[in-house]
Amino acid sequence: MALDLLSRHRKSADDDFDERVWNAFVEDLALVLTALQNKSASFDEARDALIEVTLFRVNELVLPAYERARAYQEGGFLTAPIADNSEVAFATGGSALQIHPESRDLFRPSPFVALTRASTYTDIAIARADGYDAETGGLALTILAVSGDPGPHADVIVSAVAGSVQAQQIFLTETQSARDKAADWAEKAVDQAVEAGKFSAKHHATKASASASAAASSASTATTRASEATTAATSAGADRDKAQKWADEAENVEVEAGKHSARHWAMKAAASATDAATFDPSSYYTKVQVYAKTETYTRAEIEAAIAGAIANLVDSAPGTLDTINELAAALGNDANFSATVMAQLAGKANASHTHGVADLSDASANGRSLISAANYAAMLNQLGLSNAAKLNAAQTWTAAQQFGQIRTGFTAMGSGSQFNCANETAFSRTVGGNVTFSVANVPASSSYSFAFLMTYTSGTVTWFSGIQWPDGIAPTLTGGKTYLVMFHTMNGGATWRGAAIQYDG
Question: In whole angstroms, what is the distance from residue 235 CA to residue 349 CA?
Answer without folding.
Answer: 9
